[in-house]
Structures are given as structure tokens and as C-alpha cells.
Amino acid sequence: MSDNPDLPVFLQLSEALTGVKASSFDRATTPGTPAKIGDLQPRNSPIHLAPVYLLLLQSRDRIGIETILKRFGGAPAGQAPGIIRDLLKDPHLGPICRSIIKLWYLGTWYSPTMPGKPEFVVSSQAYIESLVWKVAQAHPAGYSMAPFGHWADDPPPLSEFITFAG
Amino acid sequence: MAARIILPRFALLLIVGCLCTPSAGDVAGDDVTPLIDLRLQIPGDFFSPAKGPERTLDRLQHDFDLYSWETFVAINWPYDENENADAKQMIGNAKVGEHNDQPDHPAYWETWRSVLLAFPTDGAEPDDWDLTQERGVHHAVPLGYGDSTCPDEPIYRADGKTTTGLTLKDVLADRKYRFVNKLGKMHTWFQEEQALDSGPLVDRNGRYVRYEIVINRDAYDYIRQNNLNTVEGQQSHIDSGKRFVFPVGEFELADPKDPFSKPKLDNSPGVEGHRPITKAVGAILIKAAWKELSVGEAEGGRFHSRETIVYTPKDPLNNSNTHIFRLVNLGLVGIHIVHKSADVAQWNWSTFEQIDNCPEYADRNKPNSLPGSEGRYNFYDAELFNSQDPTEAARSLNTPPPRPWNPRQSKAEPVKRRGQIVRMIPITADVKHLNDRFHEKLREKNPRSVWQYYQLVSTQWPTRPAGLFATHAERDGDVLDLSRVDILGGPAPTLLANAVLETYIQARTPNASSSCMECHANALSPSGHFSDFTFILERAKHKP
Lengths: 166, 544
Prior knowledge:
The complex is a heterodimer. Chain A contains 7 helices and 2 strands. In chain A, 45% of the residues lie in helices and 4% in strands. By secondary structure, chain A is mostly helical. Chain A has a two-stranded antiparallel sheet with strand order 1-2. The longest helix of chain A has 25 residues, at 49-73. Chain A has helices at residues 7-18, 49-73, 80-89, 93-106, 124-128, 131-135, 158-161, and strands at residues 108-110, 118-121. In chain A, α1 (7-18) packs across α2 (49-73). The radius of gyration of chain B is 23 Å and the shape is globular. Chain B is of the alpha+beta class. Chain B has 12 helices and 20 strands. Helix content of chain B is 19%, strand content 18%. The longest helix of chain B has 19 residues, at 57-75. At the A-B interface, α5 of A face α1, α2 and β20 of B.
């Protein structure tokens, strides 16, 4: 796990952008509720996608991501939706935010300056853990953690795949 | 069964812990969980004294690794005439025959039953465990396709040429002998085992590594009592609404009336309340890898060794039309311990190796630097690697010998066909340190203890363990409730390989490189039902 000090705010930002719980930081969740595989940071996850994504963003536009984290992290509680709206409208920071959304949902890096063109899949783990599969109540091609024969049944409810924020 | 879904205690503590801390990145320190005296009690379950924010990923990994070492010590404990771990003895310092202070001795797990005994080839009911003990039959003679034996079959020496004067009847009557045969998942008659599809493993002496699977009484009785040794028995089990769920190990509870109470701590000397008391061991499956020891290796005292009957079936595909039994001194080089426990429904996966097996990839240019190793590895030759053309040397790493494979031959395989094995994922600093501490403890009991020459590679465990059905009192052994979208539960570490058991699939590609849980999550019964992370139910035969 990364010791990156920006990680907690990055996860909160990611939760606000994607609408998906970042469970490690959800202190309000009732103890006993298991983390879902679609959560941004399942509790004690050995996958560690969040630090990888943060590092990628810092390597591509350090000033941009730091500005976003500063604005989002410094905001008073309850103002997150407004700040997210403002960030998305910002001509420089908005595209970075959209790249973050694509990272989580698609596991793929889209440069903020070329938003329609995927540059690369971040890693095999990023591909597997992409939120798009969970939201679709499906699994990536060639990889499933569901038991043998699951294709014969209707998929489990969305709530078993993912916890939405808010 | 009608039941409510609950979480294991371990999961609740884990979650509460994580709610209180944003980071799972703490490095487990030296003494975060106190070591206790070496003892013969197998931990019934995973236990961590860490609470709240202490329960980080690294801390829990550390405590799982500690659990693995305690289990390794317990299953390798000397045993008595009743085949129980012997409280009067000490691991690595035992009385064997008339000799005291023996650094090596038969290990408790070796009294368990070969998986072959649980699935008789004719589909007959497996013998009662006690009956097999009475008869001294712990290992079925592992016949290959089309093979048959007679009681007067000769037992050859290791060279495969001269006879020992013993017959099959003699060695079956003498309880000290064990049988192994398997070479790897190669083809037809070898298809049983590990090292996996790509081929066998040959040591630096040119000898083929052999493998075996044994199961403890809880696992054996579960198969026998539920008639799971036959395809029809398994189908009947499913038709009656049951699933395949092996018995779980568990601790005694501080309040036996409250199924969610804390485990009862053991306050006996040497433990002092640092570990709970085991109530039930649960199912344990062992996979072991053995190599033939040279005289020098045997005298070096760095291996746990057993005189073993090595059986090589006939192999018509390779123009070998006779089988052979050889009496060989085998040394243990690798062992998986797979244990199902109440709080870890996806099983605890521990794996150990002999310390001289191979270097880590980064050290591939260097000879073995461990004291007493004389620079040699069991499965690697650094001098050969350095003397080769770099491309050829790189290609030789973790590559099985080309066909034909002939373990029947009396001569050793030539140097170029011997394994050049390296460890692709390094053992973590925390595990190395834990290994050092256990080696020190073993040396305190006997400076010559062979067990100090074994190291934990790692322990794989589910970070999102499955919930349990109902309460401990009600669940009647049927406890598994795996998530329908994620039966694995987030294995940590995500990949794990033993260099002599998953030799050729060590790498970092999910669902392709070695991960105990990811692979075993695919285990099914012959009828296509999930078989609780073990492939052994595939061995079911048709009812006669």
C-alpha cells in the first residue's frame, strides 16, 4: 500500500466523481457490511489500484491533480457536489476529472488533452477491476470470480456487485 | 438449510479495524504478535490479537504467516505408536528407536492417509480410518493404467537395477514405508499432480521430483461418511440439497453459549494466553514434493528424509512396458498445507520449501550463499548459468526438460535436462524475518534440527472471507456462503507459488500465474458442482 499522503483525498474525490463507495474511508457504514468487489478501495484490498492511478495522474499532470485535490480536500463538508460541478466545468481541470472517471470505470488512461482516444490499459488488474463490469452485473472477458455455472442463472442484484455512494 | 448470513469474527474485526484507519500499509514489526513455545497443537483457525486500527493488510498477513509456521511445526511433530502427535517428544529433537536427540524423525502428517485410499479404484467404500491404521496401510499402492501387482513383486534399490531382497508384501507389512509415484501433470498415468501441465521437475542430480497428496482424518472421514468417493454418492449428496463443504477447524469459545464470543485463550506454560485453544482441527490437505537424496545430501542433515517406495508405472507411450518399485531415500523439498477453518471459509493456504531449493531471480548469477550449502542449490546451478550464452541461459530458466521424460531410467538425466529454477516473486522481508525467528527457536531445541532448513514462502488468505451460515452451534458443518459474484474473497497475496510445486507458472499474470485460491476456485466435482476449493473430489469412481 502506498504511503502517498494525497491518497485519502484522492479516494474521496474518486468517490464523488464515480458515485461509487470508497469503502476504506466510509466510517458511517454499519460494521459488518462487507466491502464489495466494485468498491474503489475494498477494505484491506491487496489490489491497490488507487495508488497506481494517483501516481499515474501525478506523472502526467502533477500541478493539475494537486490543484484538484487541494480544492476538493479543502472544501467544507457537504459542499463536495458543488465543487465537483465547478471542477468539471473548468477548462483545464475538467478533462483531468473525466480521465479519473475513465480510469476507474474502464481501467484505461485517456489523456485529458485527447479525451476520445484511449492511450493504454493501465494493467491487467485495472482491466479486471474496472467498474464497468460491475455496473453491468457482468465480468470481463476471460476473467470471472463467480462460481462455475453462474452463466446459467440471472446475475445477482447490482447491490452484490457494488456499493454506490450517497 | 434456512439460515441467516453472518460474517466470521475475523471479518468483523477486520472491517471494524479498517473503518478506523485509512491505511493498510503498515509494516508488521518484529514483535507485534508474541511468539510462543513450539508446540504440537494445530491452530484450529486463524487468530490475530490485533484490534481496530492495528488490523491492516500487512499485520493480518503477518499473523497468517505466524499461523502457518505454528501449523508447520505441529504437523511435523514426532508421533507416538498410536499415531498421535507425541507430547513427550519435541520437533527436531526426538527419540527414534533407541536413539535420542534425533534432528530428524517421521512427521505427524505422514501418518495421514494418501488421497488414493479415500477413492478406491474399484469404487468400493474407503476403509474406516481406524481399520487402515490397524492394518498399517496408509498409502494405497498407486497403480497406473493397466498395471497390476503381485505380492512377490521385487523392490529394487535406488539404482533400479539391484534388488533389495524385499518384496511388495514385505514393505506393505512394514509400517515404516511410504509410497509415492507422481511426477507432475504430464500425460495419462502422471496426470495426478503439481508442477503442472508443462512437465516434470528434475533436480540438479538428474533425478525426477515426486509428489504426493495426503489428507487428515477430518477430510478423510468427510469423504467416507458422505459417500463422496463415488460419482453416484456425490450426486446423491447434491440431490439431497447439500453442498460440498469440508469440516472446519475452530477454537473453543470463551462463552460456549455465545457462538460469537471471543476464542478462549490458552493459558498453559509457553503460551501464556497469546493463542486460543483448538476445539476442532478441521480438514487439512497436504501436497508434498520430494527429491531423491544423494549420500552426501543425506549426510548433510539439511533435509527431512524418509525411506520411501517410489513407484513408476509402465508407460507404453514411451515404450516402457514394465513398472518398477524402488526403495529410495527421499528428502522433503516442498509442502503445501491447506486448512479449512471457521473464519477462513476459502481455506488457509500455507506453503514451505527447503531453503536450498533455488535462488530468487535477482540472485541468479550467484551461488547459494547460505552457510553449509557449499554453494549448491537443489534445482539451480549458478555456475552453469554464468557459463552459458546469455540468451540460452535466460531461456533455460523455469523451463521443463524436453520430451521424452523417462523417470524409469536408472541413469540420471544429463546436465542440460536438469532444472534451472528461480523464484520469480521474492519472499517478503517480513516472512524472511519470521523464518529466521522460527529457525532460531528450532535450533534452541536442537542445533542440528532438520526443520531449521525449511522456510515459509507465504500464506494466501481471503481478505473478504465468506460469511458463515447460522451460528456455530447450528451450522452442522455446512457453513459456506460464498458471494455469488466473488467466491475468492480477494486473495492476499494475489499470487503465490512454491518453486517446486508451481515451478513453471510463477509470474504475475492474474488467473494464469500461480495463485492457490484462483486456481482452486475452479475445482468441481465430476457432476460440475463447486467442490470447496479442492480438486480431490474429481477422483470419484463409479459405483461397482
